[in-house]
Amino acid sequence: MVKPGRYILFLLIWLGLFLNGSQAQNPFDFANRLPKSKQDSLISLTTKSFNPFDIPNKREVKKRLQLTGPTHEKTVKSLQFNKQAIPQENLFWLNFSVIFFIAFISAISRSVFKKIMDSLFNFKKLKIFQREVVNFFLVPMVLLSVFWIFNLSLFLYFLCHYYSIELFAGSLSSQIFKTFGCVLVIFCIKHLLWFFVSRVFPIQKEMDQFQFSVVNFHIAVGLFLLPINLILCYIPVNFIQFFLVLGIILVSSIFMFRAITGLILGSKYIFAANFHFLLYLCTIEIAPFLVLLKLIIVLTGF
After folding, report:
1. Would you tell me how many other CB atoms lie within 10 Å of the CB of residue 226?
2. Contacts of 275 (CB under 8 A, 6+ apart)
3. What is the pLDDT of residue 1?
4. Which of 77, 180, 238, 281 is deepest in the core (most CB within 10 A)?
5. Which H/E stretch holds residue 101?
6. What CA–CA distance (Å, rounded) separates 252 from 275?
7. Alpha-carbon gap, residue 129 to 123, rounded angstroms
8. What are phi and psi of 68, to 5 degrees?
């Protein structure tokens, strides 16, 4: 009787011979069917040993890096004063329309200008004027709101033209009215956000006073920009830059006083609810300004 150990030994020898023969003749090996140049490169790759823990030299890595596409260097623009005069195609009729518009408002209600100026820095007169607007000064206030947005748009057009910032394409009138539409949409959205905040939080009275004071400050911006815009239309180019800087200083100063007025009106809520005030400041005041600034930078390429 044959012992089982012999069968096991015979089986192991047969498996060894079979595996050796299968490696010598692999039915899935297609290397011999490749061209001679491909076979040599394949042999060099299989025979070369790679160390997975081998850290390559930085110089070798830089040599291996290859850019797949062409490189484009970003050109950074700088603000340069443009001495090219503004085309006078429709400028006279625009100025004539603005002057006629302000004369029409004065004919409707001459006292509205004095009440606006008195209410800028006097909170008692601000509250009295706010109650009188609905009954006596609603139409002049609406017209003056349109007036100040148009004057701001005209000043922005002068600023963009003389500093070579192209916001919109087209003729003088189309650029001004496109700027007017954008400014109108921005401030309408801002007032809607203030209205939403006043209805969500228990600050409706203070927020209504703040919005009304904002409208008064904006109308003051339009009144101060009126003579500056008229001067910028017909003054020699050598004096343009001075009046542009003067207009920027006036607008910035009025907006700064507007912010101080808002802080005074909401002073009792700032210290009582620090988190909510910070949330309002970031989401309603700072974030829209940064988004608008980024949009202008992307559109103009600065």
Report:
1. 20
2. none
3. 47
4. 180
5. helix 91-108
6. 27
7. 10
8. -80, -20
- The answer for residues whose C-beta is within 8 angstroms of residue 35's C-beta and 6 or more apart is none
Rounded to two decimals, the pTM is: 0.69
Q: Residue with structure tokens 């004071």?
A: 213
Say if residues 149 and 167 touch (Cβ distance below 8 Å): no
Q: What amino acid occupies position 249?
A: I
Distance between first and last Cα of the chain: 98
Q: Among 221, 222, 220, 242, which Cα is nearest to 231's?
A: 242
Q: And the tokens for 262?
A: 């808002």
Tens of pLDDT along 186-244? Answer: 889 888 988 888 888 777 888 888 889 999 999 999 999 999 999 988 888 888 889 99
Angstrom CA distances, 291 to 103, 152, 178, 224, stand at: 37, 20, 19, 28
3-state helix, strand, coil in the chain (%, to 5): 75, 0, 25
The answer for residues whose C-beta is within 8 angstroms of residue 150's C-beta and 6 or more apart is 98, 180, 222
The proportion of the chain whose per-residue pLDDT surpasses 70, expressed as a percent, equals 70
